[in-house]
Amino acid sequence: MKMKHLLFGAAYYSEYLPYHRIDQDMDMMAQAGMNTIRIAESTWSTLEPQDNIFNFNQLDLMIDAAQRHNLSVIIGTPTYAVPTWLVRKHPDILPVTHDGQTLYGHRQNMDITNPHYLFHCERVIRRLLDHVKDISHIIGFQIDNETKSYDTCSSTAQQKFVVYLKQNFPDINTFNLEFGLDYWSNRINSWDDFPDIRGCINQSLNAEYKKFQRQLVTEFLFWQSEIIKEYIHDEQFITHNFDFQWIDYSFGYQPEVNQYDAARCMSVAGADIYHISQDQLTGAEITCCGNIARSLKNDNYLVLETQAQGNTGWLPYEKQLRLQAYSHIANGANSVLYWHWYSIHNSFESYWKGVLSHDFKENTTYNEACVIGNEWKRIGSHLINLQKKNQIGVILDNNSLTGLSEFPLETSGDLSYNIVMRWLTNSLFRLNLEYDMLSSDSCHINDYAYIIVPALYSATEQLLLSLNDYVANGGHLIVTFKTAFSDEHLKIRHEKQPYLLNECLGIEYDQFTYPSAHTEICYNYASHHMTAKCREWMELVSCITATPLGRYINSGWSGYNAITVNHYKKGVSMYLATMFDDDLLDTVLSDYISVDSECEGIHAPVIIKKGVNDYGQLLRYYFNYSNACQTVIYSGHKGLELLHNKNIANEDILTLPAWDLLIIEEYL
Amino acid sequence: MKMKHLLFGAAYYSEYLPYHRIDQDMDMMAQAGMNTIRIAESTWSTLEPQDNIFNFNQLDLMIDAAQRHNLSVIIGTPTYAVPTWLVRKHPDILPVTHDGQTLYGHRQNMDITNPHYLFHCERVIRRLLDHVKDISHIIGFQIDNETKSYDTCSSTAQQKFVVYLKQNFPDINTFNLEFGLDYWSNRINSWDDFPDIRGCINQSLNAEYKKFQRQLVTEFLFWQSEIIKEYIHDEQFITHNFDFQWIDYSFGYQPEVNQYDAARCMSVAGADIYHISQDQLTGAEITCCGNIARSLKNDNYLVLETQAQGNTGWLPYEKQLRLQAYSHIANGANSVLYWHWYSIHNSFESYWKGVLSHDFKENTTYNEACVIGNEWKRIGSHLINLQKKNQIGVILDNNSLTGLSEFPLETSGDLSYNIVMRWLTNSLFRLNLEYDMLSSDSCHINDYAYIIVPALYSATEQLLLSLNDYVANGGHLIVTFKTAFSDEHLKIRHEKQPYLLNECLGIEYDQFTYPSAHTEICYNYASHHMTAKCREWMELVSCITATPLGRYINSGWSGYNAITVNHYKKGVSMYLATMFDDDLLDTVLSDYISVDSECEGIHAPVIIKKGVNDYGQLLRYYFNYSNACQTVIYSGHKGLELLHNKNIANEDILTLPAWDLLIIEEYL
Amino acid sequence: MKMKHLLFGAAYYSEYLPYHRIDQDMDMMAQAGMNTIRIAESTWSTLEPQDNIFNFNQLDLMIDAAQRHNLSVIIGTPTYAVPTWLVRKHPDILPVTHDGQTLYGHRQNMDITNPHYLFHCERVIRRLLDHVKDISHIIGFQIDNETKSYDTCSSTAQQKFVVYLKQNFPDINTFNLEFGLDYWSNRINSWDDFPDIRGCINQSLNAEYKKFQRQLVTEFLFWQSEIIKEYIHDEQFITHNFDFQWIDYSFGYQPEVNQYDAARCMSVAGADIYHISQDQLTGAEITCCGNIARSLKNDNYLVLETQAQGNTGWLPYEKQLRLQAYSHIANGANSVLYWHWYSIHNSFESYWKGVLSHDFKENTTYNEACVIGNEWKRIGSHLINLQKKNQIGVILDNNSLTGLSEFPLETSGDLSYNIVMRWLTNSLFRLNLEYDMLSSDSCHINDYAYIIVPALYSATEQLLLSLNDYVANGGHLIVTFKTAFSDEHLKIRHEKQPYLLNECLGIEYDQFTYPSAHTEICYNYASHHMTAKCREWMELVSCITATPLGRYINSGWSGYNAITVNHYKKGVSMYLATMFDDDLLDTVLSDYISVDSECEGIHAPVIIKKGVNDYGQLLRYYFNYSNACQTVIYSGHKGLELLHNKNIANEDILTLPAWDLLIIEEYL
């Protein structure tokens, strides 16, 4: 969805203010060049303080003031935090999870299949939408907030699950066989015998329940979206702020949501991206999470939340806030909305700081936001709606993520899948190789010169056949260990591994182990001779038609291969049978993947991003993610550096101060 | 409360003996110079083996034998461990806590608001008191044992909490605003909607519940004290054995009790002090915990429990038991009572060993107790009732402790407050700067030349104004990071930080972060130029009128200050915006605080403690807390070294063997 | 029990196969020289898919095919995993444990005292036995699988426990005294007041409950055994697969079963032995666990489960599978049965791989199994029924294991007892000193030249007196710290320590502590002068008549002894008062224990095992547990090396390639 201007602003909650200051806040926003606030989300107890008693005062104050200050408004439905009166009236709204019945307090603490919850949800949404439906500076609506199933295992949810299984498996014997339930006498001979899923030790069945829970999320978002559509105008968008697997920051693909499915009910995809900062700011999280968001609808996306001051360890160094904002836009985002405007004075996120500190005064973070906002007023029309055409597609798959959570690598536990995915995509990032993120059921594989497949543990026959075809037709495929090992229900294949892909890969293996502390790879390709430690997993690969590029050394497995490459019909495929150090991965990938000419010899901490803007012109961003000044030689047609409004010619030296950037728009 | 002689003895339980040997035990006690036993506490099931059936046989045997061996007796009420029959009769006596309903077994496992518990409590206390009320060698009574609320979250307790809130907040809107309950829709629009506190994620409300739980403890102790007072004589004291925040030993101020409030119902404060030993014995725990105990009533205190052999890792080296005993007395204690006389042969504390091992034979620990007891018979009258007049007061505050538990430092979790407090007081200890511990609502601030304020996260306006006044009137104030950040309900101030104190401190800040691994302070004062690593927290302080003494280096924050000093009206104040290494802290504090002349140049492991004894004479203790012999030069008037009965003159060299001490009484 | 041939094979489950392939599997087994399958165990839901509906199709298919392929069959009762319908019908079959009520899913998840469980158990066993009772190639029956009480704390179990206590303690006062229940008011004045054991904090009572739970296991196994005996023929055996304390592999004696008692209902003892592998394969686990199994009935035993590929980190290096198989046989095992034939395609143990990988193809592990099977066809008759006559007995005791779990060493927690046991037995193993494992109630102590007593924390007077007598009569005794400290109910002795044994040991102590980081032993004996770090525990031992061999140094405890030796009447005893490094232990033990002449100077990684075979000939195995080739000089009479069919004479040099072995049968 095309935007008219870059959205710049913050989440705003007049509800939590210690004193009335909406106009002061919006004055400061406007002065910073901000143009958007995101409101209402999570404030159900203010909107409906008692059962069926509604109060839109705070909302109206904010909306009216926004109009006075030329701020657009995004309205969120308030449904992800339930009021005390609702839980008192219907205690069964609190979910029963694997950890038992929850208590009231936390947000995201409800059974999204509960009919009482859904009844009250619908009522508050309809009353809210009805109240705001004709307000022109409301530009869009956000459904709920980072929706999950919150691990609901209520009897309602479990009954729905049995119905779901019955539909997929009319013959209960087929079900037992596919899920291997005879093992340890877990057989279910009658659907009435279905035991509480929370005690289940069968990973196939647990994975299916997680898939079912993801489907609940999709259904819930579609359901809200259908209600909202009854009220809104054509130019208003519907979005949702998807988040990511979390390890103190946004780390990888979200295990609990099938974002590709869920995004189909939205006009534009949104994302909440939080990342490490200070000396650890690399741009890799912004890129990886942003690439997922952009790929959900293969379009520009909104950054609905990102950090201003953020958590205690994230306070940005000088210039980092600006670098981050441009990083999002260069990646295809059309907005940077901070969570949140001011720092809250009580409760759980008091130390998740906003643009303003608790004292509401101008501070260094606010001052830097002013720089961003005012630059964008000047050059924003050159930056918005950036179109990318990447040569590399990385395949993402929720079922494989679950599979590697159920059967993890040696030390990575629930993060196993994303650790492999980030291992690969971080290397692409460092090498200045831009990439898209494809759903495993994407029909666009053949649009890419390179397809990268991280640990696709669970795969349908159809997908594996299409990957073979992709190579046969001239594609370049990179596949890691664990791929193709099990079917869509985590039933391990009883055929040769990697199942079906052994054809295009020209390899096979039937054993694997953990690398010992001294197991290494020895890599030999062209003039490159390197060794590197193995970790997490190693498959003992034999080459059938493939050429070995890396062998295991210093262990009992010296006869086996770790990295292989195979020419298959018109294409080429590479297999990585183990994980190893980043330096070697960078070498292996740069030996295998052709880089764009302007990136030749340039790699992290200097990152180049590019795309075509609304004027049809090629834009190249040069970012310096480091404390030290960097110089690079510009390779491209003549153009204009937009920030300094300065002409640039091919082979000019570009100087990038610490945590700074340049943006060059090629002349047509 | 003045004592007539130092109490020396142990807790004693004839109830747990494997065979009858009361007279043998008391013979050994008498031979060791012991004069006191503490009994009855925790033995409810012996005193009342069945409902309303009482049996005082064991008690009488001990009391009678004690009289024969000239031992005084302290009687504890037995109420902190409930009998099996009582829980069978009233299962609801077992508390519901944040971890759920408890099972019978552990001590301190009851709901102290439960009416059945209180009924039976009162009956057993009255029967016990009635039984012993006219026995002359009973010198005092101990209420319960290390009382807490045991995290009671029973419906009785929670109903009392709502009543307590209603009283404090007649207007529920004020309550919602002050606690920030609109956040995440936690608003409570009717008191009837109040949810189970155990799910609460609002730190202000959780902190208020903890404060309420501390109030339950105070009420419980007052209630028992009122009952006891009905029975006792004027010369008998009432005490309680307060304990401390525990990390395998007594570490810091007790989070679960407002000891200053609770001590008001007692004639003398008591304390249980356990500490690390062997190579790690420094005297710092005995001093810090003892200073709290002494300050509760600004008077001498009782050490009601301390270790003899103690836990497995605490077995004292030769001479350490004696050094420890004198350390308590030098600090203002009037007793050393071991927990416990003999080592128990079954159950939970079998390896928390007493003076005697399980074999009841004389051993090296017992032999050292004999040395102590017999020395005190000789010189005890010079040591007892030691009066101290310290120049330094350290402010202690339960609410701030809770605040830093809810919003902890980077790595210190629930210990955060006490880690800051001990960081400062350990430095004072090493520098031979004796100090008192003032409650944050103390009216004695102005009695001190120096006031030290560790991490006073939660503070009333009144307290902060009084600290400003203190400096204005000539005081020396030392304030650390986090101080004044929130009000008494942990609502973060929305004004300039440090709230109100920025006036006397001459500084301000609006941002903070965690120090990275290489962030350091560079300190410059007079001839001192030092650097030190920062840790846990750092505020980015700007000087308004203050002088910077320490700046941050090696990070993105080089423009900001870490240590500042400010002359404000007649006084001086210092701000420490981060934590750093002990060496630098010792330097900073010794640059700022004037030491008494006799301590000039003397520091740990040689520790000096002093006070005025019952003869009106100045006593100075010289302790050597190390394995190596130490020498120091005596600075003071002529006096008598009491242990060796030897004259000492100014500038004499004092020789302190490993783990030994000298006590010099100045001649009048 | 004598076997006719070595059993070689695997557990087999046609129930879990993804497609029908029984004949293909058995062809491959036969080709590998396998002769046995173990079936039916854990497949209740296949045998009885609905209440009282039985289906023996899968069973019959396997049994019939086995006959066609000349495979013997061992039938396991399926009772350790309950079907879904049974739990739906009787939810109270799921046990209540210390962690609460369990949910359906896991195996070994039932209350073995539950009458409904027992009813259905008996019915399925009888129907199964009835079905197979006249089949001649069924050679034996396995009762259940690694049976435990699964920590049942159901009301049925707890009521039985109270009955058990009443029987042992007709006088409740004696009970209270022996268990020390007056402490913390835990006294039980009426059996009706007995509280839920799950809250109990009295270690004596907790230990008694664990002993009671072990008795439940014994009763359950006897009960099943009696049922089975009604159906079987004389030549069929009854066994059970005992397992071991588990730390990712079989580590030590099983805390939850009294295996010596339980084994009395079996014709032959069985064991499940899993061990670390690859570079960490030492043979120590196979030896230690195998020695326990052999000692249970003082006879040959069955290895009913051991790893083929096993867990991911266990994949054997080339030749290791064969080395392992011979290691079991050399230790007195009469079988090597792999768990399991093929790798399962779903559920909990999908990565606990069998002989075959998931692809059912020949692989390196299968190929190595073929070598084993075909060698055994040739030379098996020389290997089977190996008889050992060891000089060293190590005493094992469940109560002491529990005691050290309740009162653990400094860092070893629940593993404390086995850590001490393995510390000693690993040293014996490294020194080529073969040993038996004696139950603490064994009457065979005097059959051994050396008795080794690891941490016998809980001991009856009778046992301690018999150890004194053993030394008096000329035995060599080695006793470690903690021994004799408490009685059979963990009541600590109130007499001199080590209780009673101080007589034969010639020492005493009354204090102990943890070693500090720098505490060491200095050992002096003959020409050996060594120092070593102490760890975990140290007793401060004084010699009465004993000679000190090791003293503590570098600590406050230099007056005390760590290793002592004492000549007492006709024998000699040694006391180890602390744990120390393996190198020193090897020295101390080899100074004290005479080694057999053929082992002189030979130690790990070369391990010698011996015994007398069915031909009455002495067999010596030489194992090389290392990656490097080893050579040793043969010491013995002329003989035949069986694997290479080669004559060997005294002083011949034996060459042992990496992970290889030789077997020399002396000529008569």
Automatic annotation (TrEMBL), chains A, B, C:
Q: Ranges for the Glycoside hydrolase family 42 N-terminal domain? A: 12-378
Domain Beta-galactosidase trimerisation stretches: 410-593
Q: Which UniProt keyword terms apply here?
A: Glycosidase, Hydrolase, Metal-binding, Zinc
Give EC number(s), comma-separated: 3.2.1.23
Is NAD found in the keyword set?
no
Cellular-component GO terms for this entry: beta-galactosidase complex
Question: One short Pfam family name for this protein?
Answer: Glyco_hydro_42
Q: Which Gene3D superfamilies has this protein been placed in?
A: 3.40.50.880, Glycosidases
Annotated InterPro entries: Beta_galactosidase_Trimer, Class_I_gatase-like, GH, Glyco_hydro_42, Glyco_hydro_42_N
A GO molecular-function descriptor: beta-galactosidase activity
**Which GO terms are recorded in the biological process aspect for this UniProt protein?**
carbohydrate metabolic process
What is the enzyme's class at the highest EC level?
hydrolase
Q: Which reaction does it catalyse?
A: Hydrolysis of terminal non-reducing beta-D-galactose residues in beta-D-galactosides
Similarity remark: Belongs to the glycosyl hydrolase 42 family.
PANTHER family named in the record = BETA-GALACTOSIDASE GANA (PTHR36447), BETA-GALACTOSIDASE YESZ (PTHR36447:SF2)
Q: What is this protein called?
A: beta-galactosidase
What species is this protein from? [Clostridium] fimetarium
